[in-house]
């Protein structure tokens, strides 16, 4: 699974880790994140992320 990086702040979403603080389980692909998921650091939407 691909990692994605937030353009504004540089946060890296790693599917192997997920986002446990926001109830996103490890193994969740970026494409499978809920539409309302936002960057846990700066709060921008998924459309501001780019594949690493």
Summarize the structure.
By secondary structure, this protein is an all-beta fold.
Describe the structure.
Strand 1 and strand 2 form a beta hairpin. The chain is 0% helix and 15% strand. The protein is built from no helices and three strands. The chain has a three-stranded antiparallel beta sheet, with no helix packed on it. The termini are close together. It is an all-beta fold.
Primary descriptors:
3 strands, 52 residues, globular
What topology does this entry show?
Elements: E1 4-6, E2 12-13, E3 49-51
Antiparallel strand pairs: 1-2, 1-3
The low-confidence runs, each spanning 5 or more residues with pLDDT under 50, are none
Biggest sheet strand line-up? 2-1-3
Q: How many helices does DSSP assign?
A: 0
The helix-strand sequence is EEE
Structural class: mainly beta
Terminal CA distance: 11 Å
Q: Give the strand tally.
A: 3
Q: Hey, roughly how much beta strand do the residues contain?
A: 15-25%
Computed Rg: 10 Å
Approximate shape: globular
- The average pLDDT score comes to 97
Q: Give the proportion of residues in helices.
A: under 10%
Largest sheet: 3 strands, antiparallel
